[in-house]
Amino acid sequence: MAALRLTPSLSLTFNKQTKLPKFHPNTPPLNPHSATARRRLSAAVRAYKVVVEHDGKSTELEVEPDETILSVALDSGLPAPHDCKLGVCMTCPAKIVAGEVDQSEGMLSDDVVERGYALMCVSYPRSDCHIKIIPEEELLSLQLATAND
Residue 131: CA atoms inside 13 Å, Cβ hemisphere, count? Predict the structure, then answer.
């Protein structure tokens, strides 16, 4: 038998008689925040409904689990504030009104995230969501206040 490693976490063994792969039970789990995990999640999960409030208007978007809310918002023509798209400059802040996002790639402090704030450029939906775009100064003052703690 020959072993074939397709991804960092998936080992297959081919049986010479049947030519069908067998999955190894001791394959380590994927990091849930990796791009590979997001691709697998998107294949298994439908797009989420994300309602974005901005300038007094609500826009409903369909966002795949491996897409950021900001990228879909911009693709749909929503004039969302943004700059670096890396989760560090804080020009795409939002308040999560309802739902859950994965923003583990961002640089917000844990206590600011726990208060329901997010950066849209690194926010991947994990449920149907309702978010409100907020002024950059609101998030910046919170982030700086927690940095002094």
Answer: 33
